[in-house]
Amino acid sequence: MKHSPLKITRIVLAILIFVPLLLFCCDFAHGLPRSFHALAHLQFTPALLSGSVIILVLLLLLTFLFGRIYCSVICPLGVLQDFLAKLNRGKKKRNNKRKREYRYTKPYNILRYSLLGLCIIFLIFGNITLLGWLDPYSNFGRIAVNIFRPVLVAGNNLIAWIAMQMHSYSFYHVTLHTVTVASFCFAFAALLLVAVLSVWRGRLFCNTLCPVGSFFSLISRFSLFRVKVDESKCTHCGLCAKSCKAECIDSKKGEIDHSRCVVCFNCLERCNKEHALHYTFAYSKPKSQSAPAPEQVKGMNRRAFLATSTALAATLPLLPAWAQSKKEIDPTKLTPITPPGSRSLKHFTERCTACHLCVTHCPMQIIKPAGFNFGIEYAFKPHLVYYEMAFCNYECTVCSQICPNGAIERLTRDEKQTTQIGIAQFEKSRCVVFVENTSCGACSEHCPVQAVRMEPYGDTGLTLPHVYDELCIGCGGCESICPVRPVKAINILANETHQTAIRPKEEKIEEVEELDFGF
Question: From 3.40.50.410, 1.10.10.60, 3.30.70.20, 3.40.30.10, which CATH number describes the 345-500 domain?
Answer without folding.
Answer: 3.30.70.20
